[in-house]
Amino acid sequence: MPSQDSKKTSKSSQISLKTKLTIILIILLLSTYIGIILFGKNSFVILTQLKEEKKSLTQEAIRLKNSNQKLQKEFFELKNLEPHREEE
Q: What does DSSP assign to residue 41?
């Protein structure tokens, strides 16, 4: 005759097994979700790369604006140095 202690142990083993399987399933689902967040199409890695690209493009735009200002200044200085043609 099985004692009540063995029944409790058996029952607690089943509950423990169900709990373990549930925890493993939750861990797998969370791992998959975190993997998608970090490495998916709209991931954190992509966001970081896009921020770096935006920073680089912003710096390039500032450099080009400054260069454009210098060239415009030079252009207008040269334009003013040209002799004016008088129409006949």
A: T
> Would you tell me how many other CB atoms lie within 10 Å of the CB of residue 46?
13
Residues 77 and 47 in one domain: yes
- Residue reference for tokens 């004016």: 84
Residue 42: band (very low, low, confident or very high) from pLDDT cuts 50, 70, 90: confident
Does residue 24 lie in a domain region?
A: yes
The answer on 51 and 75 residing in a single domain is yes
Whether residue 44 contacts residue 37, with contact meaning beta carbons closer than 8 Å, is answered with: yes
Q: Which of 14, 44, 36 is nearest to 28 (CA)?
A: 36
> CB neighbours (10 Å) of residue 76?
10
Cα separation, 76 vs 2, whole angstroms: 104
